[in-house]
Design goal:
Shape: globular
Distance between the termini: 36 Å
Structural class: alpha/beta
């Protein structure tokens, strides 16, 4: 199975221009029908290949019925433009993991399926045009995340930054790797597929709940080369001379520590021109927290990822002057450019960071994927 040949951004498929039958929206539609058309843009798909066994399901305009078992009556209609992780097929039905971490079944002919990509090893010969990246804006809906002194909500900041990263990855650029400047050009090509776990074009402008299990399973199902969860921090331990950025890496997914270190280095580069009363924790850099008994990741999203995966904690939204920076478009763009550069360096070079720490025992209950009370957004 080949990777997508055109850029595809989760939840934005109806706005895409008409694509060729062999490569529409980053890959052929897969299912049991020979043709399907979704959206006012008139995008068409022709399916001749064997249906995939895993991938990502995109809910078409009008929504899709969710059932508890193949052939059963629907218990709800999921909102258009949602994406689900597709795990397995049974006849004309697909089992998916919804945004609330729960399994459900959808008719294969009623949805668009983007087949799971085959990962390639990062390095100097890596083709960005074949890459798949999943960006995860942390928190959402009733899960506010951190809240700044004037009321700035982390969930909104994370979404804005993730969308900025997505836009950077969708197009080619020139990058000055010394200064970090990202400018129009073609030296760094666009990334083939960029998925968002929640997006501004989705229900409630992207402000809906997304479970930890779903976030990881979407990246697994997509065959992502990297999963980047974007956050901002709270409750610093003390003052620091430099930004107190942290990037947590998955101990069970090879390459995660290198990805985390490179993103951390790029954050420092991006934030160097800003002034604030910086704060931080015990360690500044790429870190991992593990259960002291099992050695498993403390963070549920990292524990379940099968590809290089990180959680980025940019700055402390709980501190007044850092909250003020996060309120500006310039700082959010600088944050986004740092993540973009870090992912590109990870995928296309053999670079290493000097700011990677060994995993630390963390004496607390491990993160859970439970989402009690979570509701999948319903089609109006």
């Amino acid at each position: 199975m080949t990777r997508p040949l055109t850029v595809f951004v989760a939840l934005l498929f109806v706005a895409t221009a008409c694509a060729s039958a062999s490569g529409a929206l980053g890959g052929p539609l897969s299912g049991d029908t020979t043709e399907a058309g979704f959206g006012a843009a008139g995008v068409g798909f022709v399916t001749k290949a064997r249906p995939p066994d895993a991938g990502v399901v995109v809910v078409p305009p009008g929504g899709v019925q969710l059932s508890s078992a193949p052939g059963e009556a629907a218990f709800m209609v999921a909102h258009e433009r949602l994406v689900f992780a597709f795990q397995r097929r049974e006849g004309d039905w697909l089992e998916v993991i919804t945004t609330c971490n729960d399994p459900a079944w959808v008719p294969a002919a009623a949805v668009q399926v983007m087949p799971q990509a085959v990962r390639s090893a990062p390095g100097t010969s890596f083709d960005l045009g074949q890459a798949v990246v999943v960006l995860d804006p942390g928190h959402g809906a009733r899960d506010l995340g951190g809240v700044g002194p004037t009321g700035l909500r982390e969930k909104a900041v994370n979404l804005d930054i993730a969308e900025r990263v997505q836009r950077l990855m969708r197009t080619s650029h020139d990058v000055d790797w010394i200064t970090g400047a990202v400018t129009p050009g073609d030296r760094v090509s666009a990334i083939g597929s960029v998925w968002l776990t929640r997006a501004p074009t989705g229900p409630d402008a992207g402000d809906y709940e997304v479970g930890l299990g779903f976030r990881a399973e979407l990246a697994n199902a997509a065959g992502a080369d990297a999963l980047v969860s974007i956050h901002n921090n709270t409750v610093p331990r003390g003052s620091t001379e430099i930004p107190g950025s942290e990037v947590y890496y998955a101990v069970g997914a090879q390459g995660s520590d290198r990805l985390a270190g490179l993103i951390y280095d790029e954050l420092l580069k991006s934030f160097a021109s800003y002034s604030a009363e910086w704060t931080g924790g015990e360690l500044l850099g790429a870190r991992a927290r593990v259960d002291p008994d099992t050695g498993d990741d403390y963070y549920g999203i990292l524990r379940r990822a099968t590809m290089p995966a990180v959680i980025v904690e940019g700055v402390y939204i709980s501190e007044a002057d850092q909250e003020a920076l996060l309120e500006t478009e310039a700082f959010r763009q600088s944050y986004a450019e740092a993540v973009y550069r870090g992912v590109v360096r990870f995928l296309t070079t053999d670079s290493q960071s000097d700011h990677v720490f060994a995993p630390e025992p963390f004496f607390a209950d491990a993160g859970t994927v439970a989402s009690s009370g979570c509701e999948v957004p319903a089609q109006p």
